[in-house]
Write a structure and sequence with these properties.
It is a single chain. A hairpin with a 5-residue loop joins strand 8 and strand 9. The termini are close together. This protein has a 6-stranded mixed sheet with strand order 10-6-1-2-3-16. A 5-stranded mixed sheet has the order 13-12-11-14-15, sandwiched between helices. The longest helix is centred in the C-terminal third of the chain and has 29 residues. Helix 1 packs across helix 3. 38% of the residues are buried. It is built from 12 helices and 16 strands. Among the domains are: 62 residues, Dna Ligase, domain 1; 127 residues, Nucleotidyltransferase, domain 5 (2-Layer Sandwich). The chain is of the alpha/beta class. The model has no long low-confidence stretch (mean pLDDT 95). The structure holds adenosine-5'-triphosphate (ATP) and magnesium ion.
């Protein structure tokens, strides 16, 4: 779909410590970032990517809309939590339209929740023939608990908003982290990328081959967990541990704890990638593209490079948009950029697809 000129898309990322929104206006064939806002939310309002305190969350959303002065109410909402699963499945060949209506009757055996309690989505990955010459499809299936989605819908409604589309945060990342020219077909044959967004409490990993998402997983840990480890093990104040994590002060003991945590973290990510390799026999990756402010943790990118044995590139979430008039200085924008890969990618959904 090519969006209408002058049309507006809003991406909403409800994260652990903050709620972030990006508004993109399509004009003259260009996507312009016309609004961008972040409000912080107290701990416990969103837990592990799910709504915990809907009342406070709705207040935060209202605050975000009044802060940014955004007029649009319909958003593309990103989700990443334990109530959504993404997995590749194999099905007998059918046309896409047929699959849309037949999916519900085909997938119960693949998902751990009753189909009637799930919202389903899919992407066709490839077609293949079995040894018995049966035509088959590999499909990336997404199944989300209706209740979890409903809880987001209710919060949005309480804030006077509505959902235009729902997307996995993992599927939003490519639209902001991969250059538009590559997304629109300019990839190399067989090109495989691993996108990693390290947030405060959640890390999203997306593997793509020739631009198509093949694998999406999230880990329930992020930048704040590094700080927490230092605080807990050394009985240090949070602010001081935070400064160690940002490389602003050097305390050998704390640096030691941090380094160990980072090695373990990268090990977790490597296990996710190894799992994908074992499942698909696809073992060639061109590079890792990193985002999320948690990825700024001192030495994290270097350890990714060492531990995953892959080149690591720092993603630039603003690369696919023109900057509209935003109420931030260039320095502020540079600081915000790593943390908005998800909401910008959500807002770019209509532009890229
Ligand atoms: N300059 C920095 N150096 C290191 N870490 C930083 C820096 N700035 C922010 N962080 C950390 O990055 C994390 C926040 O990243 P981000 O804004 O991407 O997360 P989030 O989207 O709010 O969280 P999540 O996606 O986990 O729900 C926090 O742990 C924060 O302390
Ligand atoms: Mg986030």
């Amino acid at each position: 779909m090519s969006p209408k000129k002058g049309s507006v898309a809003i991406g909403l990322d409800i994260s652990s410590n903050s709620v972030k929104v990006a508004e993109i206006t399509i004009g003259k064939g260009e996507a312009v970032l016309t609004n961008l806002g972040i409000v912080h939310i107290p701990e416990g309002v969103v837990r592990d990517g799910e709504v915990e305190d809907g009342v406070t969350l709705a207040e935060a959303l209202k605050e975000l809309w009044s802060l940014t002065g955004m007029k649009g109410k319909a958003v593309t909402l990103g989700i990443a939590n334990q109530k959504v699963i993404v997995r590749p499945i194999e099905l007998p060949y059918m046309e896409k339209e047929e699959l849309e209506s037949a999916l519900r009757f085909q997938v119960q055996e693949f998902i751990p929740i009753p189909v009637d309690d799930a919202i389903l989505d899919f992407d066709i990955i490839e077609e293949f023939m079995t040894a018995e010459e049966e035509r088959m499809l590999t499909v990336l299936l997404v199944a989300a608990h209706k209740d979890m989605v409903q809880s987001f819908i209710e919060v949005l409604r309480a804030a006077g908003l509505s959902i235009a589309a729902i997307d996995l945060k993992a599927f939003a990342l490519p639209r902001s982290l991969i250059p538009l020219a590559t997304l629109q077909g300019g990839y190399e044959e067989g090109e495989a990328l691993c996108l990693i967004n390290v947030g405060a409490g959640i890390t999203n990993v997306t593997i793509l081959k020739e631009n198509a998402p093949r694998f999406a997983r999230f880990l329930l840990c992020g930048g704040d967990d590094f700080v927490r480890a230092i605080v807990n093990r050394l009985d240090m104040q949070w602010e001081e541990a935070e400064s160690v994590r940002r490389g602003m002060i050097v305390n050998p003991e704390a640096v030691n704890v941090l380094e160990q945590e980072i090695v373990n973290f990268v090990g977790e990510i490597r296990r996710s990638i190894d799992y994908y390799v074992a499942q698909t026999q696809e073992r060639v990756f061109n590079k890792v593209i990193l985002s999320g402010s948690g990825s700024l943790t001192v030495n994290l990118a270097q350890e990714m490079n060492r531990g995953l044995r892959l080149p690591v590139e720092i993603g630039r979430p603003f690369q696919n948009v023109q900057m509209g008039r935003l109420p931030y200085t260039p320095e502020e924008l540079a600081e915000i950029e790593p943390s908005v890969a998800v909401c910008v990618g959500l807002a770019l959904r209509e532009v890229v697809e």
